[in-house]
Amino acid sequence: MKQILLFFIFFIAVPAMAQIKPLDARNRCEQSPAIVFSYRFTLCLPQPLANQTAIAKADDLLIKFYDGSYIFGKVITADMDALPATFDMRRYPEYAFGIRDLSELPSEQGLKFKNALEILRGRIPDSKFLKTESGGLTTYLMYGKESAEAFVVSTDSEQVLQVGFSNIGFDKVQLILKGFK
User: Fold this and answer.
1) Residue 9 carries which DSSP code?
2) What is the pTM of this model?
3) Is the confidence at residue 4, as pLDDT, over 60?
4) How far apart are CA 92 and CA 86, in angstroms?
């Protein structure tokens, strides 16, 4: 009886379980190189930029281009950012960019977002704001002449992807943001 059970587990159940797998980044990106930030966020790096990059990992994932410009990205969850588990992460960018009234939040959380926004405004003076939606992702972008900050939000995830840009013009920022799947 044990032999029959082992046969079932290894030859029937295991191959069936092997069919359940996460989305393959290569399928998301077709011919472009894929940079996977999490199960939900993949950057399909546009081919012209892919040949000009070096990638490093520290606290954030850093993609440096040979012209000296770079982007960094990190995934944020409520737990990682010391927010309550009930916090709606889809609203995170709206608080981070000062779009939503911070008085809606408990004072400690509101102060955290306020302080972060002041730092961000110092890094990106005379900033403009843009919100786009595509393929189930919403991108919030604060940008200036040569730097920008973006948050990419999925409608079906408790994760937010934060992406910072340095020494990069608006057109290149837009090209890169279009690559998120």
Assistant:
1) I
2) 0.80
3) no
4) 12
